[in-house]
Structure formats: C-alpha cells, structure tokens
Amino acid sequence: MRISVVIPAHNEEAYLPGALKTVADQTLKPLEVIVVDNASSDRTREVAEAHGARVVLCTRKGVAFARQAGLLAARGEWVAMTDADSLPTERWLERLAAMAKGAVALYGPLRFYGVPPLEAALSEWGYRAFLNLMALLGRPNLAGANMMVLKEAALRVGGFPEVEAREDVLLGWKLQKLGPVRYAPDALVLTSARRLKGGWGPFLWRQIKNLLGDPRGYFGGGGERER
Predict the structure, then answer these.
(1) Measuring CA to CA, which of 81, 144, 158, 199 is 20 to 30 A from 167?
(2) In the chain, how many domains are there?
(3) In a domain, 95, yes or no
C-alpha cells in the first residue's frame, strides 16, 4: 500500500521534530512524508527538510488550504494526515492500513499528552465515546490529526472544503456518499494539550460550537488555528 503522510504546519519549528520522528518510526513505512509550510515565519521549512520531509509551500493561511495542498501534492494512493503537534503511535499506519480494504476513509482516536495521566486517560476515553456515538448516528467525525483518505475519492468530492473549521469532518461526510468511512479504534495518535490553554471549559465549548457549524473562536486573527 502506497501511503503519503501529510502534516500541515504554521510556525511549528518547536513541535515538528517530534511529529516527524514518530512518523519515521512507523512499523509500516510511508511512501513519503510531506510537510505543508503554511506561510510560516520561523524555521518550519528548514526543520522539515532536515528530517527528510518533502516541503510543499502554501501561502494562503488556514489549515483547510494547507491540507488541500498536501492532498494534491501527495503521490500515494492513500493520504494519511496528522498535525505538527501530534505523535502517532508506532503502529498507526499499520492499523489504518489493516482496515482500509473497500473503504474510502479511516480515522482513529486521540489522547492529549502534556497533561497529568488521569487527564490524558479521560481525554482518550471521552473522545472514544464521542466517536462511537457519532458513528452510531451515521456521522463519522474525522480529525485532521488522525485520518487517512483514498486520494482518488477525496479529489472526486472536491477535497477539503474552504472553511475555517471542521474541514476534516466535512470531508468525511462527503466521502461517506462514495463508500465506507471506518473508525479504526487501535490507530491511536497523541496530540498536544496546547488546545487547553484556556482550560477544559472553553475548549469543550469551542468544540460544541464547531459541531454546530460555528468556526468563531477556533482560529487566530491571521486565519491559522489557535495554538
């Protein structure tokens, strides 16, 4: 299976090395690793190149535009996505690939790192419960930090929509019209707790607003995701 891994990055020189190392350590090696430099002003490009990644430039700020640029540039049949502040577990790609036959997209659970162990465990448990509920409702909830799409299918539905938030979820819903979108419960990715900088309350409220279709409060003034 030919898999391209795409990582969008806006000013991610601090976090990017960790993400690239965990991708390099995968039991199933990807065809390529693409870092989409989304108008960074730091050393994101240099860091990515030093770790052997292929760098694609996207000057239009916004994670949806960066993900789309990576999707278009990918050479693999499948395109796996994670974030610059995320750490896929070593069998991530292997476990996604094991469930890929006949599917058009796959997604897995997330767990925060950089928080006390109990908070980390609760974050994973809560997110798994949420994913199971959404799957039962027929509304798969893809997350850009842990998803894989069949490139041909993703392009057929237009790729990532040009929105401020929920570009990953909305693409999953479009892909569902073409074929199975599967939840891979063993394909775990750890993700940074920097999203909790305002506390759990504001974080959860932001997620609820996003689910209701409101992107406000999710992005910084320059169009990039709040960090």
Answers:
(1) 199
(2) 1
(3) yes
